[in-house]
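#onboarding

Welcome to the new folks! Below is a worked example of what a typical request in this channel looks like: someone posts a single protein sequence, and someone else replies with the predicted structure as tokens. Don't worry about understanding the tokens yet, we'll cover that in week two.

Example request:
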Amino acid sequence: MATALTPRPLASFVRRAAHLLPGVPTADVDGMTYAVESFAEPGARHAFVQTVRSTLSWSGQRLDGTGRLYLLADVPVLLVAGTTDAVIPVAHSLAAHEQLPGSRLEIFDGTGHFPHSEHPQRFARVLLDFLRTTPATRGDLASLRSRLHWADRGDGTTTATLSPV
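Example response:
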């Protein structure tokens, strides 16, 4: 039984089972299959377990990057979201876009977590247009440090906040 649950046979089973589910994009199935197959590598398994332990709890995702979006204030940002993404809801991308002045948001209707796989030509066009039309910025560690400082939240914890420049 243990042999039957090794990454490659498990990935094959997941691929076959997921293709039977209505509404699951093929690219999402392929992406998940690739991820499961990568667990054959002990280092990849360990990295995945560490990531899950640090970002998920029984009540769901506990990782929230919105508190650090200000660090991207001077960086060109392209957000690409799929409306049927079950991993990162499109609402999260919309919220990030609102918090990042000057960011560009591209929403792929009817697309899951892997828009670059489901619609590679469109994704390439969007990315190339972003690269062509977005002025480059030059950041340095000193300016980033000047923006970052720790603030007391009033509840016994601290958070990184934007320091006025």
